[in-house]
Amino acid sequence: MTNNPKAIIHLDRLCANYDLIKKKFSSKNIMCVVKANAYGHGSVKCALALENYGCKSFAVFTIDEGIELRSAGIQSEILVFSRMDIDRLNDAVKNNLILNICDKSDILMIDNYINDGGISPVFHLKIDTGMTRLGVDFNDAHEILKLLKNHSQINCEGIYSHFSTADEGDLSYANDQLDKFNAVLNLADDSDISFKSIHCSNSGALLNLDQKRMTHIRVGMMLYGAYPSNEVPKELNINPVMEFRASIVQVRRVSKGTKVSYGGVYETKSDTNIGVIQCGFADGFPRPWFNGGFVIFQGKQYKIAGRICMDQFMVNFEEENPTLGEEVLLFGLSENGKINMETIANHIDSTPYVLATGIGGRTRRIYKD
Fold first, then answer.
1. Terminal Cα distance for the chain, rounded
2. Catalytic residue among 146, 196, 262, 269
């Protein structure tokens, strides 16, 4: 049996989190974001579980991520967030993927593609309301809407944007973005252009901002049981989907004053038991967490002893003497305790997104229904 770290993915918790969000927005479609391997949780397994539970809409970042879901049997709509690649339009049509239009040049390239005999994929128009990332500039929205109306052969069914500060305490900028997006919707109404899909939210926005004009609620991190920041209302009883664990491979008694790990920055204050855990930053366990960090073993917190190494790290088990092969909880929820990703992220000035997507290396994913 391998001692490599385990990421146990609780698909029942994933569906329970989805259910909480769906009940809060019962009149909306929930678009589950499963890009980046479902934030490290496994896109295929998660999407299959969610579709079986009733989800009809997914989002990924690349066409290849979308094709992977189609190959696994996903039938629901799939939106691709990345910049349109004119050379992949045939793939998008073949796999019934939704692409995004985020520049005037996209419309001209699609028009040429259709004139050369191609079939238009479904598109969503992305408006940049203040993220300054992909998207049509807000000031050019009227021109782009007019172009789309004059090129009715382009199958543009949706419109969306993305907030940059919706998970922060000060929502003034997010509300300004929402006002801009609503202004574009009003322009579309005035031009007699209707969209089947309208979406602007992320996990922070669904808790903080008005959704009444939206047809879809986009949700990512909250699906996986973590809040996007500590500045959003934690009103839904979501649970961590990933339970990250690792094995104890050695325990030995050391004397007071023993230095542990690289740099000798950690020194034992008494005679104690030091355990070696087979997991390191190469597996996604964040190195800065050694400073004040802890794990849970049999319901109790034990401090990390010294800097986290590439493949291993040490824990001060005090007078506890674990059996080799027993496991510690690195983060998540288990029968022995809970460590939220948010706890670690806040301590090391990171985010749950970085932690979840960073789990890799030798980590084995195990799926539980």
1. 22
2. 262
> What is the pLDDT at residue 61?
98
Phi, psi of 12 (to 5 degrees): -65, -35
- From the CA atom positions of the chain, what is the Rg in Å? 24
Q: Which residues are within 8 A (CB) of 279 and not within 5 positions of it... i.e. 6 or more apart?
A: 4, 5, 246, 285, 311, 312, 313, 330, 363
Sign of the Cα torsion 131, 137, 141, 147 reads negative
Q: Say which of 6, 22, 28, 35 is annotated catalytic.
A: 35
Across the chain, mean pLDDT equals 96
Our answer to whether residue 266 is catalytic in this structure is no
Query: Any alpha helices (H) in the chain, and if so which ranges?
Result: 11-24, 35-40, 43-53, 63-71, 89-94, 104-115, 141-150, 172-190, 203-208, 341-348, 352-358
Q: Copy the structure tokens of residue 326.
A: 């027993």
Residues 6+ apart with CB under 8 A from 287: 281, 307, 308
> Known catalytic residue: 262?
yes
User: Which residues partner with 125 through β-bridges?
Assistant: 101, 159
pLDDT digits (tens, 9 = 90+) for 207-257: 888 888 999 999 999 999 999 888 788 889 999 999 999 999 999 999 999
More confident residue, 296 or 369: 296
Beta bridge partners of 300: 297
Q: What pLDDT score was predicted for residue 1?
A: 53
List the one residue out of 324, 253, 261 whose CA is nearest residue 1: 324
Buried b (16+ CB within 10 A) or exposed e, 272-289: bbbbbbbbbbbbbbbbeb
- The DSSP bridge pattern shows strands 294-297 and 300-303 to be antiparallel
Distance CA 271, CA 255 (A): 4
Residue type, 182: N
pTM of the entire predicted model:
0.95
- The conformation of residue 134, written as its DSSP 8-state character, comes to S
